[in-house]
Amino acid sequence: MSGVMLPGPLFAVTIEKASKRQTAGALIALGHGVIEFPLMFLIFFVLSQFVIPDSVQSAIGLIGGALMIYMGVQAFRNRNKEEKAQPSSKRDSLLAGIWTTAANAGFILWWLTIGTA
Questions:
Q1: Which of 26, 66, 82, 93 is the most exposed place for a label (fewest CB within 10 A)?
Q2: Is residue 4 included in any domain, yes or no?
């Protein structure tokens, strides 16, 4: 529940894509699962054997936080630029779910800290 309550890139993409295609939410969720399910198995069967030092967790948090701030600044700067409307395909929604999950520093940090518990 803690991961769902933190809105991020996946949430934003879902809102944007869902306004154009009715099945976008399900496809984005499927794309999210493509990344999350293998990661859960990797953490449970492999990484749970190791202890992650606090310094590594802090470094991941700082790098991830800096990346999120950078992405926020870029989104703020580009807020008034108009984009040409392009038709959204099913493949776009699936890839959006995969990419926004894989590139989300908060998602990775969550799994390395709260998710491993």
A1: 82
A2: no
